[in-house]
């Protein structure tokens, strides 16, 4: 039975740095999109809100129109009653009956006036709602045009990077398989804590990349020896020597050069 080849610390460091280079390129591509995905999401939410508002106003208009129809029906009924009472006045037997019918007719005439006043109010409200709908639809059209522009912009960026992203994602998965689970978990944990996503960095001018804290010569020598995984005590990142970093950068660059 063949023995499984033991992976050296140097091989682990190279695989880690390769993975970092690949993931950093993926980050770079995502950053090219900037805030576009969030802007698109916000615009879509705003458009949904405006559509809901327009629908609500249209429902209000429909309700007002129903009220107007009901009031018009009530007016017709009141007019019929007025006519009825006036006809009955012709056949009354005494003044008391005549006065009673007169009061009934006057009440119905007041009902007609009140209904007409309410119809006028409903019509005014309908006009107000229509004005708001018109303004909202104008805002909606502007937002929809803006959304279309932003989506085209994002689609253009994604079209340019789609193939590269697929290759990078595949390579990221491939290089992750070369790293043992414990070390990979540590890499992901460190990476998640860093704003720039850098979990593995090289030594530059005597300090870890992006840091002002000088690393003692003895520790630099240990890093260059590649005998164990060394963590920067100031930033918490995994350190590799500049020569290894340069070699892996060249390798990964060649890998993606057409």
List keywords for this structure.
Helix Hairpins, 6 helices, mainly alpha, single chain, 3-stranded mixed sheet, 76% helix, 258 residues
Can you walk through the features of this model?
With 258 residues, the protein is mainly α. The chain folds into 2 domains: 9-32 and 180-255, Helix Hairpins, CATH 1.10.287; 36-160, Helix Hairpins (Orthogonal Bundle). The chain has 6 helices and 3 strands; from the N terminus they run ααααββαβα. It has helices at 9-32, 36-89, 95-176, 181-193, 217-225, 242-255, and strands at residues 200-204, 207-208, 238-240. Strand 1 and strand 2 (207-208) form a beta hairpin. Helix 2 (36-89) runs antiparallel to helix 3 (95-176).
The residue fraction in helices comes out at over 70%
Order of helices and strands: HHHHEEHEH
Helix-strand makeup class:
mainly alpha
CATH topology of the largest domain: Helix Hairpins
Mean pLDDT: 89
- What can be said about the biggest beta sheet? 3 strands, mixed
Q: Tally the helices.
A: 6
* Count of extended strands: 3
Q: What is the strand content?
A: under 5%
CATH C-level category of the largest domain = Mainly Alpha
State the end-to-end distance: 41 Å
Assign an overall shape: rod-shaped
Strands side by side in the biggest sheet: 2-1-3
- Overall tally of domains: 2
Contiguous low-pLDDT stretches (5 residues minimum) are none
């Amino acid at each position: 039975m063949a023995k499984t080849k033991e992976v050296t610390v140097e091989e682990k460091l190279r695989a880690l740095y390769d993975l970092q280079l690949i993931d950093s390129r993926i980050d770079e591509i995502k950053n090219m999109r900037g805030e576009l995905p969030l802007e698109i999401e916000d615009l879509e939410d705003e458009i949904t809100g405006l559509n809901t508002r327009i629908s609500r106003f249209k429902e209000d208009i429909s309700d007002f129109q129903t009220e107007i129809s009901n009031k018009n029906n009530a007016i017709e009924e009141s007019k019929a009653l007025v006519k009825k009472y006036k006809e009955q006045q012709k056949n009354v037997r005494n003044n008391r009956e005549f006065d009673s019918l007169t009061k009934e007719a006057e009440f119905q005439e007041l009902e007609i006036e009140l209904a007409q006043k309410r119809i006028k109010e409903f019509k005014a409200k309908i006009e107000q709602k229509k004005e708001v709908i018109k303004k909202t639809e104008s805002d909606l059209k502007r937002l929809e045009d803006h959304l279309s522009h932003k989506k085209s912009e994002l689609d253009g960026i994604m079209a340019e990077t789609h193939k590269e992203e697929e290759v990078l994602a595949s390579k990221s998965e491939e290089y992750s398989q070369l790293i043992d689970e414990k070390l990979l978990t540590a890499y992901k944990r460190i990476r998640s804590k860093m704003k720039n996503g850098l979990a593995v960095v090289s030594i530059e001018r005597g300090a870890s990349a992006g840091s002002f804290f000088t690393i003692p010569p003895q520790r630099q020598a240990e890093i260059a020896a590649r005998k164990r995984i060394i963590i920067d005590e100031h930033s918490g990142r995994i350190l590799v020597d500049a020569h290894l970093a340069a070699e892996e950068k060249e390798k990964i660059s060649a890998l993606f050069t057409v």
